[in-house]
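<instruction>
Derive structure tokens from the sequence

<record> Sequence and structure tokens follow
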Amino acid sequence: MVINEILPRKNILTRPVVANIDYALIVTSLKKPDLSYTLLDKLLTLVIANNIKPIIILTKLDLLNKKELKEYAPTFKYYESLGIKVITNKKLNKLKKILRNQTVVLTGQTGAGKSTILNKLNKNLKIETKPISEALNRGVHTTRHTEIYEINKIYFVDTPGFSSLDISNLTKESLKEAFLEFKNTRCKYTGCMHNNESGCGVKEKLSKGLILPSRYINYIRFLKEINENSSKLYK
């Protein structure tokens, strides 16, 4: 085999190690395992910062009662208002139309149902699935390595599940840009990081209920993580 040319990568994720991805399906369980907004926002941050289009796939809706479903509805309408598609695992035909001829990575919390979605898209796959651990309220790893499946002219990259991610390689600016609701917001200072600065337009929008509180809390949490990592590097 002779390598004639090395083409440029349009994007890359380091954990899992995948490149040249068009879409990321962030498979998000609402119950068993319970929804983690921190994990969801961290995945969205990494995906958006790497120029990959995110789609949130909601699973385990059948485990919720009507009251619980109603409580979640405004939250995911907010994500949709940012231009992020939110689809339930009951609407996979809609998903197939969006993803045709695309390369797609599946990610999300362990036990959320990534392998189950692939099995539904192609019943011949029969990928192993396991119930979650009731004691730990989290899934058991079934995907041990990254594998690519071609289904209906869509290339799915199935990756091992994980519950923690390292965003320390992101810059503070790329983090800020990944929070789509912060764009086109006027602040007093040009380099405002929307943290302790006065005259911050983002904090003003937050006070008016225009930004989801959990999103801002996670932004500050991720900003702190990046700052702490930068401090370690220069010690």
